[in-house]
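[audit] Reproducing an earlier prediction to check determinism. Same input, same settings, fresh worker. If the tokens differ from the archived copy the diff job will pick it up downstream; this log only records the rerun itself.
[audit] input (118 residues):
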Amino acid sequence: MTDSSTQGIKTVLHPVSDLAKAKAVYTALLGVAPQSDAPYYVGYEAAGQQIGLVPGGGPQAMTSPVAYWHVGDIEAKLAEVTAAGATVKEAAHNVGGGRLVATFTDFDGNVLGLVQDP
């Protein structure tokens, strides 16, 4: 195993059916205004966490929240988890500004995410 330890879960994305209603609830919960607010994504930063609201589950068709583990080398970590038996759901890709994301499933079908910041 290589030294590709994670930096912990720092991002959690939540699929929502009504962005305006969800935004009101999450703003009240977190006590801060959204850092990014677009029709396709509303994002918060609270206590070092990135909390995202994704209307309709977005292009990745999320049906439940997905926790994203931050890593230094996303490709190395994907190789490690797939060698251990995980299945890549969404290959690493750039979502803007050099940020790479990927998702995979474990043996029970749980979706987990990876993030590599530039």
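[audit] rerun output stored. Observation attached for the diff report: Residues 19-30 form the longest helix (12 residues).
[audit] end
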